[in-house]
Protein 1
Amino acid sequence: MAAGGAEELRQQQQQQRRLGRLSALSVYRRAAGAERLERRRRGTPLPAGGRRAKARPRRGAARGGGGHELAAPPPPPSAAVPGRVERAEAAPGSAEKKPPGGPAPSPGAPRVRAPGGSTEGKPPGGPAASSVGGGVPGLLRRLGLLEDSRRRAAELFRWLVAPVEPGEFAGRHWERAPLLVRRGDPGYYAGLFSTADFDAILRSGEVQFGTHLDVTSYAEGVRETHNPVGRALPAVVWDFYQNGCSLRLLNPQAFSATVWHLLSILQEYFGSMAGANTYLTPPGTQGFAPHYDDIEAFVLQLEGKKHWRVYSPRTDTEVLPQFSSANLTQAELGKPVLEVVLEAGDLLYFPRGFIHQGDCLPDAHSLHITVSSYQRNSWGDLLEKLLPAALQMALEEDVEYRQGLPMGYLGYMGVANSDAADTRRTAFVEKLQRLMKKLVDYAPIDAAVDQRAKSFLHDCLPPVLTQSEKQLSVYGFPAQWQDGSPRNVDILITKDTEVRLLRHGIIRLCNEEAGVMLYYTTENSRVYHKEEPKYLEIDPEYTDSIEFLLSSYPNHVTVDTLPCGTLDDKISLATLLFEKGILTTKKPLVQV
């Protein structure tokens, strides 16, 4: 650069410092004004554009000075050891859990950790645990070669927690204790998501503050959300970032095909919605207050590094909570059970109820994605559906539930009478206990599970099809306008056509008051609950054919073997399911 140009630049910089830089954050704070600050002090709701986080209102401020929270100094980062695994104490009151997604491998199976976190002794023909060779997109392509979607899901989860075996993870960590995996492989998650992807998403023009993106900060014990109204323009977003704000992209699967693909497979393993958020944090800052969540969290460090502290639930009531906590203060925390600096390629898992906080070191930014599952997926959540249905059936079928309460019971029951020695109280309690015990006989357990499954299918992401699957499905059917008229329109399924389900977990039969419903996921949106649940009302005579398709998966069956009444019924059912993307054929229906 010429000397004159350098001098001009220096003068401009000095002038900018004198005038004071009007950053997006400072403009935002000026626009909100004194009223907003006074509202924040009183804890009253903020006006639009100045709201705090909905789920975690601030409960107090930590003591300290300067621009950021006074955190305990991070431990000196140890040398990255490939495949190194660290564990923390189990939560109080936790019990051994079965693995989600299917039976665990036999206990005591040998495991040899190889460099880069790969695992030897994996099932023959299975994809390598490492994502090398095309990164995560390459791994997903290799998984697509497996015929059974359940195997794809199991192998992807194996890769997620490698070199820890899924069975060991289920027995020692799932819903019990945090797990840290240091891989020493910065490229382990290559191609999953990056800051370049984040920038491209911003430039797509589809990102809205609040709906898709949160701008957050946590300094001096105060957690704030700084979302303006409207579109998240790159210049504004990156200005917030330069001024120390964290950027949380909500539901990145709606924007990133790779994240969508990853989650669409994992959801079948968990049997529960798999979601994600990405977090981009500037060096030397923290975006969120300490808190615990109501989900099982898998933190995948994509870029840079981040200092994490994880704390056990403080009481038994916080073990596996139904709901996330409010923001916590530093004074409310004890000693962390795990303190670590995550580097690219590392994994941190912690169960719901474990308090956590992460801050960036001064020398590096951090980009991580949190994959989550098992929100409201407990025995208690099932019982919330089951018990009202059981009581309704008992009222309809058993006169004892419809008999009147004893006259005068208000005089000897209730808290005021709880210490009274009265035989009428004893008889009342025994009768109630017996009625509650009898409810089990009326509990429609399978129907309640079907309703849970129906909700899960509504939560699900639509499946991501491989190229070969597209060619064999309605999504690759070559119908088009050509030479003045539609061509290749007729879907010609015959009795000899070989078909199978696209995925094992994409349908669910539910017997409801309105009839037999077949719920499915192939027409779901990548945006959570953007669409209503998708279903077909089918004739009861078709239920055996649906169950036959499920039990036959992943094998193909000829349409003629479907257990329907007539050949026309068989072809009609197969054609309907094909048109909805539920069935694929063994060979393309139309040769192009």
Protein 2
Amino acid sequence: MGSAETITLEQPCIDCGNNVFELDIGFYYCAECGTRTQSTIATDVDLDTVFGDGALYSQRLHRRAPINQEVHSGDDEPRDFGSRPLPDIQTVARAMRERYLMGLQVMLQNQCQVLMETYKVSPIICGMAGPIWLSYLATTGVLQEGWAIAVLANCKDLPAKGSKNKSSTEKVTINEIYRTLRKSIPIYSTLAISFLSCHLAREPVLPTDIIDWAQEAKLPYLSFFIEMDRYIGTAPAACPLKNRTMFRPTRILGSWQLEDVAGKIAQKIGLHLPPVNFYAVARRWLEELSLPMEILPRACQVYEWLLPTELWISANGVVGFPTRVVVMSILIITLRMLYDINGYGTWEKSLNGVADKQAQLEEGCEMDSNTSSEFDTRELLRVLEAVHKYIEVKHDYLQDLDTYLKYYRDVISAGMARDPELQVNRTIKRCWDIYCKNKDTELDIKPENLNFQHKNIKRKRYNDDVTISTCSESSTRLHADTFEIKCPLPKCAVDSSLRGERELDRMRFEMEENWFCYLAPVSRRKSKGYISYTRAKDNFFMYAVHADYYILLRALAKLAKVDMRLLHDSTLELERKLTWIEGKIRTSLNVPKDQSEGGPVERQEFDLD
């Protein structure tokens, strides 16, 4: 069959907006999507050749492919229902099932390969993912002989609305087959099986890692459908759906939902899961926090003491606490016990300590070197504040506009038609060229270069300048060069005290924003020990905590990518369990009350003679 004549018409295609058409036997057809135009028709054509018996074209305004013509199934050549004759519907259902399952299996294999090569996960996950995948397919019933007949029986109750055309009925049936496949085996099940394989291999891979890598297109998921033809070949004639339709995900699960899906898959196939590898996950987080590794054995002791059931992946839905939250709660309890974070005001003392040291330096006094080189509570809080300030929790594609535009082009809009003849694609290319040309010539605007002198900002501003106001003179802003002349007090004493007050106000304001209430440090206490906080409910829950504990909770919640209140609730739950265990042990050992709650029990020595 010879090549058709190409012509450009003024009236664009009603489906895709293309202006390039092909002339074939009296009608003009869109070169992009094959739709016949209604505005233009060629003359001197025998109508029997067009609409007679054995004609190559249907009455649905789309060209019908000749029987001996090779038909490609790539995403660059979209096809519509009714554009060519299909085999019987059972053959179509089996072909769609085979291609869908092959595509998901290839996606799972590539995910395991990326985890192994890029993120240095143990190669044993490749041997675990295969049996889990096949067992999961067996439980869904998709591979049964009568699956296609059962699906087609359900399709009889879904006739095409407002039309009795055969092609419309086929379209409804094919859509129902596809929906049944995606409902039985969702595309996101590949991510759940990948996470499940890492969990069985005792790797410190968290659900948040899998979700983040999938969103950033580092793990084959969002745009992998573009490469499907390279792995499983072109679609057969019995499979009328494109790769973009079959294998493009419509949603990305949250980390908690991914953990729930993995638990349901394990429950379906009868797989007994071990608990989370606490040692590996805790070691990973301690390294990210730059904390001493001496903490890890103590944390493992608390873990072995508790053995919380929440560390097993559950299929009960989003009930309880995620596994990573429970691991982080154990670390919080361990750090509180080791560094005595129990409301003694270490953070508030550090604010006053800065002022005292600066005052001594200004007066020329020599300070005694009493600071210890050990990692103490003050050093721990300093590290945690730095972690909260500098840790990055946003995705890589949100760094700047250039990165986000490339992410949108390569991931979000992947697989769309990119014919340079289309007007919309020409416009996109022109805008992209303008952006790439001008992005290097943009002004480098930084916050420190902005001048807010003439701005009327109606909010409280925190800066290092001091404003002194008296009755006889207006408010005067004092800078470093004029401070010593106009201020009778030592500069560092006033400046540092004000800075400490501002830091305390900031802390109170931030805690209130996060539904926490600031508690002043404890000055007097009958007995030193572990403090357990409680929740107060006044229309909503309020969490009253000390600043030291809040700094610890804030940094660890940001690292675990979880809300602080959820992490606090999990910590309170584990503390109650620890209290209950200690009470049971005290009862079973029959230790006197005055000795168990007072100081340590006196040692008694016995002679063997």
Protein 3
Amino acid sequence: MVTSGSDNSLKKRGCALSKQDFLPEESFQSWGNYGKALCSTKTRLKDRLLARSDDNLELHEMRARSEHQMKKTLNWWDLIWFGIGAVMGAGIFVLTGEAARNYAGPAVVISYLISGISALLSVLCYTEFAVELPVAGGSFAYLRVELGDFIAYIAAGNILFEYVVAGASVARSWTSYFATLCNHDPNDFRIHMSSFAADYSHLDPIAVAVSVAVCVGACISMKGSSRFNSIATIIHLLILLFILIAGLTKANPANYEVFAPNGVRGILKASAVLFFAYVGFDGVATLGEEVKNPGRDIPIGLIGSMLITITVYCILSGTLCLMQPYSEIDVDAPFSKAFQAAGMNWAKYIVALGALKGMTVVLLANIIGQARYFTHIGRTHMAPPILAAINEKTGTPVNATVIMTVANAIVAFFTNLDVLSNLLSISTLFIFSLVALALLVRRYYVTGETSNSDQYKLIGFLAVIIGSSIASAAYWAAGDGGWVGYAVTVPIWFLATLGLQISVKQARKPKMWGVPLLPWLPSACIAANVFIMGSIDQPSFVRFIFWTLLLLVYYLFVALHASYDAARETERTANASRASNIEAGIAQ
């Protein structure tokens, strides 16, 4: 039996660790037990593959495994600033140059709007889930409830990998912008090890120091982290306002004479690039347990922050194209070079300071989101349960925060930015698509209530929606074949969504806040995310598959058996509780 002591040990052991903190389940108590578990892999996989959690389990029993509760200290104001801070980092200073010069020209404004609307569709789906399931696991918990343990595990493993890469990348970039402020080359602040491979030879102690400092703040106090984030984000916005005003003083409307040099295709290709300037909001959804009034605060915080971000991005990108002809915009440092070309060389320091502030709050939001993902995964025993511990004094997941910071710092210390930037994977888009799919399942399917006929129709329509979305993305990736392919795939997507709306009865209504225009917005979210995947290079898909295979190996040899034992223990506890209640009723 899985002993409840596996969770209690989190508070009893203090700093002393043992195997029980990492593998307390029955399957790992001896080599004999583990051998029996491996022999039962097929049976256990069949049991857990499509096993779905439920709202009550995620909201109550999973939380209880952390022993202590996170402190409810956040409101909508905090969430708005966390949302802006998590999303509005250095992306606007880096991605805008590539998108404007190579693809869209001044129409980059439209590209930012299109990619912003695509991101907003995902925000709406996340918001409904976060209101209904305000738990630390974010998308992991949402997918566990609607699509099952296995899908949730694969998705969470991929998003954590992307979090580590993003955190390390931002930490290395922090050093680069700090060097700019100091009039130095970034490698002047790094330790060169000639005996190491070229891509790993410039060791970055500043990146590690910044990561550790952010980790300490995230561990000490969530409310304190929120205050710091709010102040830093407000300063960041003031710097962006300065860039806007200063840039408009050098505006030349003639630069807009050729508005979209590469036509619609150029605008859409730029949108695919710029979409990644909007990612990060999913980490805000992991703060659900710490929000005072989820039904009110989460929708205002998530949607409000995204609307502000879209507006700022569109205005700043438009200003950049007014300052310089799109063909002269620098790909790597567009704003700094634009000010330099306009005779305002001093402004590059303001730009660097703005980027530095932005990256600091992105690092904070990144580690907070990472830790809360890992905390909830630890609660399910798919990761070591010691990660589920919540510190009694601070009300924060200290163990998970420290472990994820160590991972970020190690990668940031050794790995060059060029390597990290090429590790961009499809994980974010993959999970955004799954969350939208899970929302449709949640609204149209309830076990024991949805008829077999509606169930089969739901599966069929969802398969067509996904299939037509993949077909559109594949046609886009194949090259400029005109619009003939879309004349087939888009109507198929439209008819499948319409069929879902007309012929399948909704099985559940949201209790507090729901996505409007169902099923159109979640269906459009799936189509948009899959379409953007078509613009990602082949090596990213190879990395995604390779990492997923590694996750699968860990799942088959460890996570499957740990989560199976934990689920059986939860089931036994629930049965015993029901039996006790029945006996108490009879006695009365």
